[in-house]
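Is MU-OXO-diiron placement plausible here? Inputs below.
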Amino acid sequence: MKAIEIKKDIYWTGVKDWNLVEFHGYLTPRGSTYNSYLIMDEKITLVDGAKHYLSDEMVARVKSVVDFSKIDYVVVNHVEMDHSGNMPVIMKLAPQATILTNAAGQKALSEHYDTEGWKFQIVKSGDSVSIGKRTLTFVTTPMLHWPDSMVTYVKEDKLLLSNDGFGQHYAADSIFVKDLALDVVCEEAKKYYANILFPYGMQAEKAVDGLGGLDIEMIAPGHGCIWSGKKEVETIVNLYNYWASGQNKGKAVIVYDTMWGATATLANAVMEVFQDAGIPVVKRCLTHTHISEIIPDFLDAKYVAIGTPTLNNEIFPRVAGFVTYMKGLKPKNKKAFAFGSYGWKPGVVNQIQKVYEELGWETIPPFEEKYTPKSDVVERLKEHVKTMID
Ligand code: FEO
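Reply from A.M.:
I modeled the complex. Tokens:
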């Protein structure tokens, strides 16, 4: 396993997790990577680690350039275990190294691992550490998406080591975006933002603003491919600006499940109203579509309609799972509507309505129908949905 030089004397020493199909509830059909970077300067610096089960591969890549006993610094940008899982291995191989991290990073490391004997140098946002010809500057990005999250900027190389930010769960034949289909990488970056960073739009906006003052010609994230080249860097920064702003493209998303087709009939009627109004609409049935595949639609949606059947006097479990997941990701600025069907006891749609209200969304009253909706009910529903369209 060899390291790959991404800039003069700066190497990618990460690993590709080709077989990853799921990342804490998020489907990853294109796998992922855990990227670490090795900077060969007067003070040799390793930035970030890898998941524990791919540690051997990462260690081999580092060793293809330098022995661990020569490493001076290990930067920990973020302690989530996809980046720090092999820190015990790294620190065993390089006990002489000093860990550069922020106070929250040190605390989180000590809460994950036995850090007895590990040397720490705590950095604050804006602090710089000279490693010889280069200076590393650390910018903390708290709650983007953990309290410890930070990025490392290498001024001399105009290089941003951004950890989770700008990442994608994507194992590809190249580690550079420029060698790949840009739309595929952007799709994965969008899915990553929606499923991981969506709740932290304000922090993302602030972080992207803060990075605006930096001269960046390469963004090397902790997952997926490296944005090198003006076009690639501009593309992802513009996308982050848009996603973090909370703006949308005025689209509609309908999410539902169905038992005997009644809620599906209602979902079709709702879709027709949006289509007739010339509003781009997607309809996602939870029987066939995973929750993590649907959330990216919310980045572009102004209108949300969620429909559920009633099962044992409760919201249908797959819809409940989706609503819980969506609530945690806190999409903003939506106009929403809940609909559904029931057999003998109405009311479960109010659970969806309550979530809309907790999210601070604008709503119209929910709509429920007993058993199979007849044509007059469908027409009544359509008239109701029209009232939510601007
Ligand atoms: Fe890629 Fe938050 O860890």
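Short version: The pocket of MU-OXO-diiron is lined by residues 78, 80, 82-83, 145-146, 164, 222-223 (CB under 6 Å).
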